Each structure stands twice: as C-alpha cells, then as structure tokens.
Amino acid sequence: MTQKDMISAIDFINEYADDTTKLRFELDDLLYDISLKIFDYRMQNDLSQKELAKKLEVTQAMVSKLESGQYNPTVEQLWKISKRLNLNLVVSLQTKEDDKTEVWDTQEYKLGNIEENKKLMECS
Where is the HTH cro/C1-type domain (predicted)? Predict the structure, then answer.
C-alpha cells in the first residue's frame, strides 16, 4: 500500500467522525492557528516566554498555554494581545453558502480518493 492509497487523517475524520468530534477538531484547528501566530511572533522577535508575558501583561504560564493551544482566549483577550503586539485581529463570520469548502477540504490534506481508501481498508 502506497501513501497515495492511504486515507489522510483529515479525510478519515470528515468521513467517519460524528458532528461533535468534527466541531472539536475545527475548534482545535483555530486554537492551533492562534498558538502558531503567538509562537511565531515570539521567535521572530527573539523573545523568551517570560519576556513575551511581560509585554502582554500576563504570566509566563499563560504564554505557555497560549502557545500550546491549551487555552481558549476570549475575543477581548485576543484583541488585547493584538494591540500589545501591534498585530491586526481579523474575525470573519460567514454563512455556509459563502464558505463552499470544508475546514479540512484543502488540496494539501488530500492524499487519495476516499472511496478507494474505504475499499482498501475493507479488504485488509
């Protein structure tokens, strides 16, 4: 079996997970994006977590939780972070009709055809 024949984890979740699990993955993806932005900022500015915490007026433990995605900040907290780091905060709410793609439905995650992968898994 080649990598092309295997179903990606994202396709597997979209195909087999219940709606609650899919929503949890969607939220985790948003928290991951936030954590990466904060971590990238800290790395690009050569700051320790303690230094970034001072700049954000939070504890080092809070920076750690933000960077690990273990903390779900409020919009107000994100707004304050963006102001203190001189970043733009963009929030976008769209109708389902405006957003034609699934959260995970991007070419980079597709490794093969889902129907082909299901058949291969049944034969195993």
Answer: 41-92
